[in-house]
Amino acid sequence: MSTASVPLPNWITYGLMPLLNLLVAFFISGLVVWWIGEDPLAALKLLIEGSLGRGDAIGFTLFYATSFIFTGLSVAVAFHAGLFNIGSEGQAYLGGLGAALVALALDRYVPWYVTMPFAVIGAALFGAAWAFIPAWLQAKRGSHVVITTIMFNFIGAALMVYLLVNVLIVPGKMAPETRTFLPGGQLPKLDWLMAWFGLKLGPAPFNVSFLIALVMAFLVWVLIWRTKLGYEMRTLGISPSAAIYAGIPYGRTVIIAMLISGGLAGMMALNPVMGASARLQVEFVGGAGFVGIAVSLMGRSHPLGIVLAALLFGILYQGGADLSFEMPNITREMIVVIQGLVILFAGALEYMFRPAMVHLYQRLKRA
Amino acid sequence: MSQHPAIELVGIDKSFGAVHANKNINLKVEKGTIHGIIGENGAGKSTLMSIIYGFYQADRGEIRIDGKPLDIRDSQTAIAAGIGMVHQHFMLVENFTVLENVMLGAEGGQLLAKGVSGARKELKRLETDYGLDVDPDALIEDLPVGKQQRVEILKALYRSADILILDEPTGVLTPAEADHLFKVLKVLRDQGKTVILITHKLREIMAITDEVSVMRRGEMVATRKTAETTVEELAELMVGRRVLLRVEKGAAKPGKVLLSVKNLTVKDARGVTMVDNVSFDVREGEIVGIAGVAGNGQSELLEAIAGIRKPASGEILLDGQPIANADPARLRALGLAHIPEDRHHMGLVLKFEEYENSVLGYHRDPRYGRGALLDLKAIQADAVEKIEKYDIRPPNPRLKTANFSGGNQQKIVVAREIERDPKALIIGQPTRGVDIGAIEFIHRRIVEMRDAGKALLLVSVELDEIRSLSDRILVMFAGKVVGEKTPDAGEQTLGLMMAGIAA
Known about the structure:
Distance between the termini of chain B: 51 Å
CATH architecture of the largest domain in chain B: 3-Layer(aba) Sandwich
Low-confidence stretches of chain B: none
Number of strands of chain B: 20
Low-confidence stretches of chain A: none
Oligomer: heterodimer
CATH architecture of chain A: Orthogonal Bundle
Mean pLDDT of chain B: 89
Strand content of chain B: 15-25%
């Protein structure tokens, strides 16, 4: 026996320990910043101000966080079923195609709120479709989903470039992108939400898809912990042999989990495509699919944790961009190092402080 | 020889967090004796032995080897002090030879050749001295479990162990193999070695030990001369109350055939035939036991009937309906319940809370929620009912299943399968790793099911369990049913059949 089986109250497991891990990650990041000759406290101040200091900064932070919520949920749903979906990146990319086709078809005729539900469905369908082939191969042929989904990222990228360069491009233009959607194909910004808090959004593209992301987080929670399908997915994810014993069909459960996962990844496209640039561009996903893996890991595959982790990564993304602008010594790569440290401590080393915490907790309880 | 005991424990105390695994343990094991240690699962036997072998350090207390206090920080120290351990799960490299396994960790220098010839000579001497006959060049994976265990003992002796600790050594052996092991242990004792035997089988204690110590809930509650105690007294000391060792049941009243297996053949993933053309019937109101040494096809037979493994050929009928190709969900709907052999891998999802496991396999039942949603209130109410009826402890449906003891985990499975009131119940190892108190309870439930007119098929490697529960016994060897006996057949007869010697 070890301390691993000693129960701790939830506020320690889900509150104190992640916070502690985060502080250690920031502390080590601070050492790195100090080592390259910059002032860590000044850097931290810039990071915070750049991400949370002004209305538009918060807007950008929440914009990034929105994308990460979608991809984090995508990874988490598959993970609950024991599947490691590395393909959220490609599924999101294809999701953009679904969203863009709906927007291009409808934006001339109807207002945005009519387009939106169709765009949500279109994005989810295309994302799910892109996850279907790896899912089917895993379910029926045993081809490992990690390999196939990562391959499908490349195939998806190539397909999208082909479509944008040859099919969807505006004739006579140089840029490989669709025409700009009319307001009927755009998701409006959430100025009013920011105004509630007395903040001005400015140029930040914080938009309605944030609300869609929150609704999806809730629905994922219902799915995983309140439905029979979620129960079956969790059983399969934790103990495949118990799932066989319980008569839970492996193939069907794997495919459904991957379709939901792909659909959530696809919806991520709503945010940049219809919420920000109002057109479909190459490489609009920009790594959000991979960040989703870290977000899901850090959020312990729980929707609430994912929303919080997505906010943290939004802060690192936006604040990091500001920081590297203000302190040229701290490059984009340095920001990636800091993100890496956060993932390392909050994700991979999540149990590092657990034994110490158990001892401390027991001593306090006895006293 | 000095008068000191071979090993003496004084005031050993060990806690894991809030769990007090060993409380002020005192124990004296005299030289040249076989000393039994018995206790229920979780009584602290394994912890105590791990402390002696240096896996854990005691919080307090002293270990004296041959009268001298010794601080055992790791297993190297223990080995150097002449302590050898034979684990319940063998620590052998499967694709190494016997000789290579014995030498492992004691190669004697950087170059192998010199060590090998020396080791071969020493191994030969040990084998002849103690009657532990094994071919030094045989691969471990080709040896039957009984011989693999001998290699474990040889390993300890090769490291010149004077004190040999055996942890549940007979769990995987046929009765004949177990008898041979006991002979070896007696030879070891007569040659001056000290043997500590950990077991929960009272019969073995009575058969072979000189002295016996009983542990209960982390405490050493008694030490007796084996000749001066009885099985009943030891059982009572272990559990802390009087225990019914015999299963009380009346004569069976078999009705019509409910479960019928015809010419069933099952192959494993590599295509090896595990169940070979097996046929039998189970009637309403009877328990049919399948005896056999583990690995002779019983597991595959159970899994084929339960729909987990597709049979290669043959028929299975439940109440006249063919079910050979039905999946587990459909079989449950048809009234076939299954208590699987391995509760950790099949019967339970250990990371789930108790109530979630109380519906595993039945979670699609409308009783537990209409449509796509689960009705958590209904499931928890149902779980609480089962907890009360089966005295599952602690009585908390929100506790993680991994935190229940083995006996209580098994009760969760038994409650779930029996309370569905199935027509037929197939049961694998119902009391493996379950303490005596819970065994008594589970056995009573199984007999109640029979008396309620259900058809029961029971697979167990515990011959005692098969004999006391079954109304008819089928013996399996190498995938075939080699004979049918009544439960009053002698242990020796059954043992020989299990070893494939007589029909």
